[in-house]
Every structure is written in C-alpha cells, then in structure tokens.
Specification:
Largest sheet: none
Helix content: 55-70%
Structural class: mainly alpha
Number of helices: 34
Radius of gyration: 42 Å
Shape: elongated
Distance between the termini: 93 Å
C-alpha cells in the first residue's frame, strides 16, 4: 500500500490547476506528517538511497555516507513534487497539440527538444515525467496524458538508440573485461511511482474496447479486449497506442538495474514485475504487436550493459527470468530462434557465481555488501531461483523432441542453476513430460532428465540433503526407463554418484530386483551383464565400507560362488578392526540362514570378542545374540562350544545371562545340528568337566560379585527382589558337585559382612537358613 499511497499524493499535488495557496497548504501538511516518528518510510528500509524526484542526483553525490542522508517517508516524493510546475512552454505545447513538431529546417544536428523525425521529447527524470502523466490522467486530462506519454516514449527510444551506439564502441573492451557498471541508479520496475505501469495503463485505456459484458456467466471477470488506435500526429501513421504500450513495457522490464536493498523494496520489484507481465499477457498478439515484440527483444539483446538481457551484466543486476519467460512464450510461435536466444541469455544468475568481479556500481551499499560475504542480502533469492527454474522448465517442455535445443537448454541449466533441489525438480518435470501415459516415451527428453539427475547426485554426494534417498530411488527409476546401458553406466560409475551404502542397499538391490528385469525384458546375457556389474559394485562397496555394506554385498553375491567367497573374506578381514558386534551378529545370523553354520559360528565368535556385557546389563540389546551364538555352538558340537565358552566368560559378566546359557547347555546334548561327517554321542554334558566347568565357575563368580554390588546401595523396597535373585543364584550353585556347601558358605559370609542390615538378613535366614 506504501507505493500506491506515495503515488497518490504525488498525483494530488501535481494537479495542473492546483492553486499556489492550495499547494502551499499541502506542502505544510505533508512535511508535518512526514516528520512524525510513526510515518512509514518510502522503501520500508532505514537506509533509502533513491534519487530525488526532480532529478537523478550525480553519482558523486551518491557516494556520501548513507547515514548523513535524510530519511525518506512516503510523503517525501509528494513534498518534492510541490516544486514542479506546468508553465514550461515546451511542455504546454506537447500536451496541448497532437501535431506539435519541430520545423523541418531545424531538424539537422542535435536537439534537446525534438528527435531527428521532429517529434517532441520530454527530457525529465523518467519516473517524474510518468508521474505527470499519471496526474493528468487522474485529473481528467486523458488526451493530454496520452500526448505526454508519447513524448516520453520517443525520448526513451532515442536514449535506447544512443545507448546502443555507445555500446558498439565499447563492446570489445566490455566483453574482454567480462564485467560492467550499471548506469541506472534506480529501476523503473518496482519504483514507488510505478512509471512503466502508469504509461502502459494510460496507453492501453485508449485502445480498450468498451464491452458491457465484462462478467461472464460464472461471475469471473473476463480479460479486456483491445484494438489498435493510431497515434495522433505520427508521421507514418503506422504506430498505435497499443504497440507503444507494449514497447514501453518491454523497455522498462528489460532495463538493467541493481537489486535494491531491503526486503520490502526487493519484494516490490518482484510483485511489480509480475503485475506488468500479467497485463502483457492480456494482449492478444497480432502481426503489429509481434513485430514490436521481435524488434524490442533484438534491441534488448544487443543493448549491452544498458539491458538486463545484454551480453555482460553486473553481478547484482535484477534477474530477467520472469520477463524472459513471458518473452519466450510470446515469441515461440513466431520466431523460435529468437525466443530461445532470449530465454537462454536470461538463465544466468550471476549473484550466485562464486567468482568474477563485481564491476563498478553507483551505489555505495552494494559496493560494500559483496566484500564481507559471498552473497549480498537478497531476501527474495528463493523466489528468484524458483523463477529461474520455471523458465528452464518452460524451455524443456517446448524443446521436447528437438535434440539440439534440448542439449542447449541442458547446458544452460547445468551452468546457471545452483540449487540441487531445483535441478531435481527440473529432472522430475522432464521425466514426467517424456513419459506420457498413453504414448511411447521421448528418449531425448528422458536422457536430459537422466543427466540432470546425475548432476543432482554429484552435487548432493558430499552434502546433507533430506531428500537424498528419494533422489537416489528416482534416478534408478529414470535410468531403468532409459534402458540397460544407463543402468550399467550408473553401476560402473557408482563412486561418483552414491555412497557405498546407497549403492548397495538402494541402487544395486533395485537394479537386481525381479520387477526391474521384467520391466526391461532382458534376455539371459543381458541379465548376466547387469548381475556382474551389480556384484562388482557390491564387492567394491564392501571393501570401502564393510560396516554398512557387507551384508548387502553378501546378499547380492549369493548366486555367484566366487563373488560370495570374496565378500565373505572381506567381512572376515574387516571383523577384527572395523566392525561392531551388532553388525557381525547380523551377518552371522544371515550365514546360518543361508546354510553356512560353521561360517556363522566363526562370525559369531568374532562378534563375541567385541562385546562387553557388565554385571547390571541384564536388559542389554545383545543378550539375544549371545544366547543365539551359544545355541549355535552347542548345536554344532562339543568342540565349538568349548571354543566359544572362554569368549563368553571374558565378554559377559551378567550373572543371569550366564546362568541362562549354562542351563540351556545342560538341557540337551551338543552336536544336534547334524553336520555331515561328524559323530554325535548323544550324551548330556557335565558341569564338573570342561568346557561347562569354566562357565559354571564364571557364573557363580558373577553371582557373588553382583550380590555384593547390589548390597552396597540397596533399599528396603528391593529386599524381595534381592531374595529372588539369591534363589536363582542357589540354582546355579547346586549345579556344582559341592554347590550346596559353597552356597551355605556364601550365605554365612553375607550374614557376617552385612549384619547391620538386620531386616534383610532376617529374610535371608528365613529363606536360606
């Protein structure tokens, strides 16, 4: 609302018939309001550096410290406009006659009042000149407003031509330097006085076809209908106000300008640009308008540093993505080469480039802002990047089926878009367009989608991205659609695209799935080629990251004996240093499931060496694995049980776990797994002989140590639980030949040492004597 408010008061004080007393009254009141602390600032930012309304200040004045500049409120421009008047004779002649021209004998040489064709010019600060047009139109002088608008456009045309002549002489030097200084100290798009919107509205209002049926049956507003109205006084009669409106909108939108400071000012630039584009889209392009469109697009491309579409732009220049998207869509049916040239030129976003000089700029804050950090404070950067992405997506859609254009657009995307999420979105869009539900896929666009996906993989490989798993899965899907060669390629170059875990658990697993084989309709040699690549990948990943990839590698290599043996050996080699007991137990269970009990036992034994189960960890997550490992050893035979018990004794200090293992080992005879070539005696093992004797002693010792540890900090509410614990301990003691004696001595020792805990000892005596 600040922009409209500012322009409104400028209109009020620029009333052509406003009396001096009225203007003085307004000036006094506006200054009073502007001095209030609560008065909003013009650009919503404390540090405004927009030029004075009456003239663009020299660059040297702009270099002064911004803190010394007066604050600019929403009334500042209206206050400045009070100094403007309408008494200039040249201005009066412009607005009072359609046929005001210079005499033919005065058209030779330079003139500040007329162009070479003799048409009048109005050399004023452009937003100020447009404010006059707005004031005339707002106060009922629509014909006068039209005449002044035409004079302003003739002035802009002449300036554009002179700028192009200047650039022709400087082109070689500028292209060699690769940087430029912008001459526009303020942009016309997003300006508080909305000069381009004002001219466009003034010109198109004259061309609007009056229609009473402005609302359709649905209650929505129908777009306006325009027709060509010849420009009064035009020497050749070939111009209409509608072509002038289009031309001035394109000039303003294509102006190279520095991104203003502050969130409000930057957001206003984006919104104003979208508003102008929406107005342009209401125009139904005929031959005359297309001719104007082509001419202005070519001029913008050739205008060098004066145009946002020039060959070299300033690092902090406002991007042209939204504007270029309109130009591309409008030009495409009429001149595809020009449409692509404009859109590809506009794809750049130099503020995100990591290198390159900034050039000179007539704006001290912007010159300073790029020193301390890589990026200036562009609050709307996310919006600008999304507009860049939309422009690229529009080009990709239009280029479907054209290999050369698709390749050119792909290169522009890879060069200019720096967000992995946006490139991924483009890849998904391209994939969706390339694979319609009711038609065969477009292989050229599919390949573009795949290349964009590969770039995303490379960009996000070493950085965190919460969508990474989704991206990896999508890439495999895309490669599957492209075909066998694409899948082989990503499998062979996995290390540049995926982490070892992703490569084995997602990529190779998906590629080797039954659905993928059916989708590709592969014959036996092709299936073998794919399987061979997947196995090679699996072994490489297992070597690089055995902790996370060993199990996946074993699974992928199941059907190839040599590869499976190699994967198993990688696990054995890594077990002593780089793998946890949890990972080893998991692989050991897998080996048992696959029918390799002896290998499973070896891995379980290695896992036991990494484990340490304290006396009080009776709910530890590894307990089930320990019990399983002991059951496996017991089922294999006495030798395997004898081998694992010392490891259990060394690693497990929890009495209840040890007693559980001991009980299970004494219930059945060892060697029931039925390993071929082994004899099974079928006898139960004795606890007074090896290897169970060592386990029994360790269990009894663990009960004794745990009992003393518990009694150190026991509370009365835990007495009952403690008595039950001693009952379990007695069951273990009694497994020894002299267990009852040992347990009696143990109880006596407790009574002696902890005689101070009278209530507890009384409970002990009641239960155990």
């Amino acid at each position: 609302w600040k922009k409209d408010f500012c322009a409104l008061w400028v209109c009020v004080v620029l009333n052509p018939h406003c009396k001096s007393e009225e203007k003085s009254g307004w000036l006094k009141q506006l200054k009073k309001w502007g001095d209030l602390d609560v008065c909003p600032l013009e650009d919503g930012n404390y540090g405004s550096e927009l030029p004075n309304i009456t003239n663009a200040l020299p660059q040297s004045n702009l270099a002064q410290d911004s803190l010394s500049r007066p604050r600019r409120s929403v009334f500042s421009r209206a206050v400045e406009a009070c100094d403007l008047h309408w008494q200039d004779s040249h201005l009066q002649r412009i607005i009072s006659s359609d046929h005001y021209m210079s005499p033919s004998y005065q058209r030779e040489g330079e003139s500040l009042l007329f162009n070479p064709q003799g048409l009048p010019l109005w050399l004023d600060h452009v937003p100020t000149a447009c404010a006059r047009v707005d004031a005339l139109r707002s106060h009922g002088y629509s014909r006068e407003a039209l005449r002044l608008a035409v004079a302003i456009i003739n002035t802009l045309r002449l300036q554009q031509q002179r700028q192009m002549d200047i650039y022709k002489h400087q082109k070689k030097e500028l292209l060699q330097r690769g940087v430029t200084s912008t001459t526009n100290l303020e942009g016309w798009v997003g300006h508080p006085l909305d000069p381009i919107g004002c001219l466009f509205t003034t010109l198109t209002e004259t061309c609007r076809v009056d229609d009473d049926n402005t609302m359709d049956t649905g209650g929505t507003k129908t777009p306006p209908v325009y027709h060509h109205v010849p420009v009064w006084g035009s020497p050749d009669g070939g111009e209409s106000y509608l072509t002038l409106a289009l031309e001035v909108a394109l000039m303003g939108m294509g102006q190279q300008r520095i991104m203003p400071e502050g969130l409000y000012a930057q957001d206003k630039v984006c919104r104003n640009e979208e508003q102008i584009v929406a107005k342009l889209q209401e125009l139904e392009l005929d031959e005359l308008l297309v001719q104007t469109l082509r001419k202005q697009a070519i001029q913008l491309l050739e205008a060098g540093p004066f145009s946002g579409l020039g060959e070299v732009i300033h690092r902090e220049s406002v991007p042209m993505h939204t504007f270029a998207k309109y130009l591309f869509s409008a030009l495409l049916p009429h001149d595809a080469d020009l449409a692509y040239k404009v859109a590809l030129r506009a794809m750049r976003l130099p503020v995100l480039e990591s290198s390159g000089g900034s050039g000179d700029v007539g704006h001290p804050h912007h010159g300073i802002s790029i020193v301390p950090s890589r990026y200036p404070r562009w609050f709307t950067l996310g919006h600008l990047e999304s507009q860049q992405c939309e422009l690229a997506s529009t080009m990709l859609t239009a280029a479907k089926g054209d290999m050369l254009r698709l390749r050119t657009v792909l290169e522009a995307i890879q060069k200019n878009i720096h967000s992995s999420s946006l490139i991924f979105k483009l890849a998904q869009d391209a994939f969706k367009i390339a694979t319609p539900a009711d038609n065969p896929p477009d292989i050229t666009l599919l390949n573009v989608a795949l290349e964009l996906g590969l770039q995303v993989m490379r960009m996000t490989l070493s950085t965190l991205n919460w969508r990474r798993r989704e991206m990896v899965r999508w890439l495999v899907t895309c490669a599957t659609e492209v075909g066998l060669r694409a899948l082989v390629s990503i499998l062979q170059s996995w290390y540049t695209l995926f982490t070892p875990t992703e490569a084995t658990s997602i990529v190779a697993a998906t590629v080797m799935s039954h659905n993928t084989i059916l989708r590709l309709s592969l014959d036996y040699p092709q299936r073998e080629e794919l399987a061979s690549c997947a196995r090679t990948l699996a072994l490489q990943c297992a070597m690089k990251d055995p902790q996370n990839c060993a199990l996946s590698a074993l699974t992928l290599c199941e059907k190839d004996h040599i590869a499976f043996e190699t994967a198993y050996q990688i696990v054995i080699d890594a077990a002593s240093t780089g793998m946890t007991y949890s990972q080893l137990f998991t692989i050991a269970r897998y080996m048992e499931h696959r029918g390799y009990p002896l290998r499973s036992f070896k891995l379980a034994s290695l896992a036991m060496t990494h484990l340490n189960l304290a006396y009080n960890q009776d709910t530890h997550s590894a307990i089930n694995d320990v019990l399983w490992a002991c059951a496996l050893s017991h089922s294999l035979g006495k030798n395997e049980l004898a081998a694992i018990i010392p490891l259990v004794v060394k690693s497990v200090h929890c009495a209840t776990v040890l007693s559980d293992i001991l009980r299970r080992c004494t219930m059945t005879a060892p060697g029931l797994a039925g390993i071929p070539g082994r004899r099974n005696s079928g006898k139960l093992m004795s606890t007074d002989k090896a290897p169970l004797r060592q386990l029994l002693d360790a269990t009894i010792s663990a009960y004794i140590n745990t009992t003393h540890s518990r009694l150190t900090h026991i509370s009365p509410r835990h007495y009952g639980e403690f008595i039950e614990f001693l009952s379990k301990a007695r069951e273990t003691f009694l497994l020894a030949l002299d267990g009852h004696i040992q347990f009696a001595q143990f109880i006596d020792n407790l009574k002696q040492i902890y005689k101070g805990k009278k209530k507890l000892m009384m409970l002990v005596r009641e239960r155990f004597g």
